[in-house]
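Morning. Coffee machine broken again, so started the prediction first thing and wrote up yesterday's gels while waiting. Chain of 253 residues, entered below exactly as on the submission form.
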Amino acid sequence: MNNKIRVGAVSYLNTKPLTYAFEHGAMQDKLDLNFDYPSKLAGQLLNDEIDIGLIPVAVIPMLKEYHIVSNYCIATDDEVASVCLFSEVPIHEIETILLDYQSRTSVALLKILLNQHWKIAPLLQEAHEGYENMISGKTAGLVIGDRALSQRTHSKYIYDLALEWKAMTGLPFVFAAWVSNKKITDVFLLEFNESLQKSLLSIDEIVSSMNYSDYDLSVYYKHNINYLLDENKRRGLKLFLEKITNFQGAVFR
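Came back before lunch.
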C-alpha cells in the first residue's frame, strides 16, 4: 500500500524555488509530487485526488475542510510581473477581456479590480489555449504564469494585477498557498517546511541552471515574487477571501 502524501504544485517557473529540493530527492519516500496548472490542481484538491496542493487561494472557500500548512506561498508585495492584463489600448478603452483558462484566483482578482478599482464593465469571455494571439484592438487578455512573462514583450499596455491590488488596498497579494484538505501529521509538515526552506536557498543555482530569455529570473524570484506568508500577506489574503465571498461577480460556480 502506498502511504505517501500526494502533493500537487503549480507547473510554472515561479514554483521552482519551492519545489527544487523535492525534485532533487527530498522526502521522496514520503510524498508523491505532481505538477499541473493552477485550476487543475484546485480541482484535484477539491476531489481528494491530492492531499496537499500549492493551489490558487480563490479555491479555499470551496473546500469542505482546509488547512494552510506552510508559511511559504506565492505572493508579492508589489509588482508580480506574471499576472497581468495585456492590451493594445488604455484600460478604459477595452471592450472585451479574454480570461485565462488556467487560473481561478487571477480571474477573481480581475473581476474585483474591474468593479471596485477601475470601475469598468467590459465583456468577459472564457478563453482557450492560444488565445494570447487574439489580443488586439479593443480586445485585451488576462494572462498568467510563464506565458505572461513572454507576453510582456508583445503588448503595448500591461496592467499588473498585484500592483493594482496594492494601489487599491495597500496590501500585498497572495496568489497561491500550500493547502491540505485534511489533517496532516506535524512530523510530516515539519520536514515538508524544512524542505521548502532549503529549496528557497537554491535560487541562484536554479537561475544558473535555466536557459530563459523572456525575463530576468533572478529579478523575478528575488523581487517580483515573495515566498514568505507573513502576517501582512495573511491580511491581504483575508481581505481577498472576504471580497470574493461578498462580491457575486467573482464567485466561481
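The chain has two domains: 5-75+173-250, 83-169. Going to sketch it on the whiteboard this afternoon.
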